[in-house]
Amino acid sequence: MQTETEWKFTAKDIAEKPDLFLSGHRACAGCGPATVLRLIMKAVRGPTIVTNATGCMEVVSSIYPYTSWAVPWLHTAFENAAANASGIDAALKILKKKRRIKHEHVDIIALAGDGGTYDIGIQALSGAVERGHDFLYVLYDNEAYMNTGIQRSGGTPLGASTTTSPAGTVIPGKLEHKKPIADIMVAHDMPYVATASPYYWRDLLVKVRKGLEVNGPAFLHVFAPCPRGWRSDPAKSIELSRLAVETCIFPLWEAVNGDYQLSTPSKVFALAPQKKKPVKEYLQVQGRFRHLFTPKFEKLTEEIQRVTDERWKRLLKKCGVEQRAKTTA
Amino acid sequence: MRVTAKEKSWKEISPAGVCWKASTQFLTGDWKTYKPVRDLEKCTRCLLCVLFCPDGAIHWKPEKGDIEFDYNFCKGCGICANECPAKAIEMKLE
Ligand SMILES: Cc1ncc(C[n+]2csc(CCOP(=O)(O)OP(=O)(O)O)c2C)c(N)n1
Ligand code: SF4
Ligand code: SF4
Ligand code: SF4
Question: B19 and A70: CB-CB below 8 Å?
Fold first, then answer.
């Protein structure tokens, strides 16, 4: 087991570690999830098996006969990354009992997109967590079903235009708010749940490592901008993952055995609310929200701001953090 | 798509569909229109570009104490240029 001091990954430590998610994958230029996977695979601590639900990251990394995975990796159907992880966990237990594997411990990572988690994979995930299997589930959230052409998911935010919630004369993009998936996972009474963003890479890596080290199931919700689906500049994917935290539309926190704690990058905005940016700054650089800046749908940005603030306040309460009054300095 | 002589036909593919070639044998560098070019003077070797590149196309070489771009894989997204705190990277038309 690694001690806490050894978690202080520096940029050099990470850069020197060999890639386990290899170059040559076929993700679009500027793909946020690809950076997320590269970073996540730098935090593994030993023998690791990855299982990956159908979606962009599965498709782009396993185009026959090529693989981008330098670890054992299994593709699974769209709906059951967590069921596959449960099976691997059960198999490893038996192999260990029969002394058929030499490793003392093997880590398991299940990967899926928002479609494969919020909507289709949630029952397999809920079951695996309830049964207490020892694995880390990583949700890379690009906020729509990207691999099949940008359809809305339970993770798509209000007002985003997708092919199944197209902004036009009738609707202003998606009509519903984003489902609070990580809170739903906390309600499972599981040992470790956290949210992360690739811009805050050290925070992300530490959370991956914590999730692996915990005994039992862990859930990591990682923000992952998709330039294709978000109609954003490929160069801005990492910038967007910073803006999402700075606007508090995607705050960073962790819940250890159900106890919420605000993570350092988000703490800044609780202690100094004047630093919190308006969500408009985040929305206006993405084509999927373009229509919100026309007179017809303008009101929706206010609604997005209102709900963002409301959820942020509720989170602070859960974390036991008082929001300092806005100083008018 | 036609199967070339070197690739296996479906009859020879293992039932589980095992991928056996590392994708590093598949060069994605020809996707790019713009190419990152670094100003050696400005670069502080902070390594942020190495961490953020989605394609693992920037490597840290400890023996040289410097970074190196691998244009075989760079897709020209511009993330490195956008994130460089020293503004040391410029995207130039290939
Ligand atoms: C049960 C089922 N329904 C639909 C599909 C088709 N399908 C494959 S990938 C995908 C979208 C995946 O979306 P997401 O999980 O968000 O991952 P992303 O592509 O965005 O990375 C769909 C609909 C499927 N494979 N299985
Ligand atoms: S569609 Fe989006 S998530 Fe999928 S590979 Fe392209 S950029 Fe990445
Ligand atoms: S981000 Fe900029 S300063 Fe840092 S290593 Fe890369 S080129 Fe150099
Ligand atoms: S342009 Fe994009 S792919 Fe090329 S080195 Fe920079 S970050 Fe990597």
Answer: no
Please count the other Cβ atoms lying within 10 Å of the Cβ belonging to residue A301. Answer: 19
Q: What is the rounded distance in angstroms from the CA atom of residue B43 to the CA atom of residue B36?
A: 13
Side-chain half-sphere CA neighbours of A43 within 13 A: 26
Of A15, A233, A234, the CB nearest to B47: A15
Q: What is the maximum alpha-carbon separation in chain B?
A: 56
Measure CA of the first residue to CA of the last residue in chain A; give whole Å: 47
Would you say A241 and A198 are in contact if contact means Cβ atoms under 8 Å apart? yes
Distance of CA A146 from the midpoint of ligand 1 (Å): 8
pLDDT at res. A328? 44
Is residue A23 a contact partner of residue B28, using CB atoms and an 8 Å limit?
yes
Locate the chain A residue with the closest alpha carbon to B45.
Answer: A12
Mutual angle of helices A237-246 and A264-271, in 10-degree steps: 40
pLDDT in tens, A273-329: 999 999 999 999 999 999 999 999 999 999 999 999 999 999 999 999 977 665 544
The 10s digit of each residue's pLDDT in B60-77 is 999 999 999 999 999 999
| Ligand 4 proximal residues by C-beta, below 6 Å | B 36, 53, 55, 57-58, 69, 74-80
User: Who contacts A125 (Cβ-Cβ below 8 Å, separation ≥6)?
Assistant: A81, A82, A117, A137, A185, A219
A141 Cβ neighbours under 8 A, 6+ residues apart: A113, A114, A117, A155, A221, A222, A223, A224
pLDDT in tens, A85-125: 999 999 999 999 999 999 999 999 999 999 999 999 999 99
Residue A222 and residue A199 in contact, taking contact as beta carbons nearer than 8 Å: no
The length of chain B, given as a count of residues: 94
Q: Which residue of B has its CA nearest to A63?
A: B19
Q: Predicted ipTM?
A: 0.95
Residues A202-223: pLDDT tens digits? 999 999 999 999 999 999 999 9
Closest CA to ligand 2's atom 2: A226
Q: What is the DSSP letter of A64?
A: T
| Ligand 2 pocket test target in A31, A60, A140, A163 with most atoms within 8 Å of CB | A31
**Residue A22, pLDDT score:** 98
Provide the whole-model pTM: 0.95
Of A29, A38, A235, the CB nearest to B56: A38
Phi, psi of A141 (to 5 degrees): -100, 100
